[in-house]
Write a structure and sequence with these properties.
TraB/PrgY/GumN_fam, 9% strand, 16 helices, 8 strands, two-stranded antiparallel sheet, single chain
Length: 408
């Protein structure tokens, strides 16, 4: 199927956002055709309407007229992530009528229906098995306890199982807190909607916004990875271009034994939901996308230059090293690999570090303390390892707040 015009650009951007999210959910081949695509789309619509009704009921909703589906619907006066019906949201996203919505629904069904699940992992060691240490800190103050676990969003099966000590901390906790619950439908839709801003609509391209040497590196990358060319469009803004290039590299055959389905945060979210443990977002997808979209173009020029200057062998080795550092809990090595590389290198990278690491860490620390006030039970926090280690990491922030902090 071929698309053209502004509506096509919007459809394409939304589809790409879904691709990124579905990759995070472990779909190995999101473009594979699906016999159940239409049913999957309908199931998603039904789920969204169900969430809307649940949210409305809990917020004191007013009845809505019957839509003809045989179900009574409600509308809440309070804002909710999923308060807008999905068909209406699709029309807003694509800026078109019923035909555009139908096309998007078909695309959505094919994406959601495609792919195969990765082999399930056992997150924690059982019995006398030792398991992997992982990167876990305990912070205590005035009878309150928070466990801080550093994660990697794309991992190998060998990351698991974690040690009985990690299991004990996880089971003790009253809730799991993550950067964003990527399994939440509301989070996924918010990301799709926001990602539409990732493409120029006035005829400009990333070639107009980036230095010539960076554009040349992008062209070389596309020529080496011809399968990714359809995912990297000239109309992408630098921030979205960077997001897509990093996603393409993470999804490449070079890292075929790595998978988002084995990402530590994803595995822990699934385990928490299996145990009926609440999952709380410290930031949310919308906030993360907002931050990424507001960083200056020169920051992304430097990030792209850095990313694309690394050959495939070095990229693979870096991922292997990060994985091993995290599996064994090597804090010093993680700090060197995940934090120090951005300090003192250039003004652009320093800006990135301050915005993406320092400011987010301060905000997350505040949210964590708010969550600790809920019921007095320990809180298990799982966020990217770069947010836990280093002089500006969460472990150090809580130490400065008067908590007794130790690595487990």
């Amino acid at each position: 199927m071929v698309f053209g015009g502004r509506g096509a650009r919007r459809l394409f951007a939304a589809g790409l956002a879904l691709l990124v999210l579905l990759a995070a959910l472990g779909c190995a081949n999101p473009f594979a055709p699906s016999q159940d695509g239409k049913a999957t789309s309908q199931a998603l619509l039904d789920e969204l309407r169900s969430q809307e009704q649940d949210a409305a009921s809990s917020a004191g909703a007013k009845p809505r007229p019957d839509t003809g589906s045989g179900k009574k619907e409600t509308r809440s006066s309070a804002p909710q992530d999923s308060a807008q019906e999905f068909p209406d949201l699709l029309k807003e996203l694509v800026g078109g009528g019923e035909s555009d919505t139908d096309v998007f629904s078909q695309l959505l069904g094919g994406l959601l229906g495609g792919g195969t699940k990765q082999e399930a992992v056992r997150p924690f060691a059982e019995g006398s098995a030792q398991g992997n240490r992982g990167l876990l800190f305990e912070a205590k103050k005035d009878g309150r306890t928070v466990y801080l676990m550093g994660t990697i969003h794309v991992a190998k099966r060998e990351m698991y199982p974690f040690s009985p000590e990690v299991k004990k901390a996880f089971q003790e906790a009253g809730a799991l807190a993550v950067e964003a619950d990527v399994t939440s439908l509301g989070e996924q839709l918010a990301t799709v909607k926001y990602t539409l801003d990732g493409m120029y609509s006035d005829g400009r391209t990333y070639r107009d916004a980036l230095p010539k040497d960076v554009v040349q590196k992008i062209d070389e990358f596309k020529s080496r990875n011809r399968g990714s060319a359809m995912l990297i469009q000239d109309s992408f803004k630098p921030w979205y271009l960077y997001m897509m290039i990093t996603q393409v590299r993470l999804s490449s055959s070079l890292l075929k034994d790595f998978s988002p389905a084995y990402g530590v945060d994803m595995v822990l979210i699934q385990e928490a939901k299996k145990l009926g443990k609440p999952v709380r977002s410290l930031e949310g997808a919308s906030m993360q996308m907002e931050l990424l979209s507001t960083l200056p173009d020169d920051v992304y020029a430097e990030l792209l230059r850095k990313e694309l200057s690394q050959d495939d062998a070095a990229y693979r080795q870096e991922m292997e090293s990060l994985h091993e550092f995290l599996r064994t809990g090597d804090t010093a090595a993680l700090e060197r690999a995940a934090v120090a590389d951005y300090r003192g290198k250039s003004q652009a990278l320093e800006t990135y570090y301050q915005k993406v690491i320092v400011e987010r860490n301060q905000n997350m620390a505040q949210r964590i303390e708010e969550e600790l006030q809920r019921d007095g039970r320990p809180l298990f926090v799982a966020v990217g390892a770069a947010h836990v280690v280093g002089p500006d990491g969460l472990a150090e922030i809580f130490r400065k707040k008067g908590y007794t902090v130790r690595q487990l």
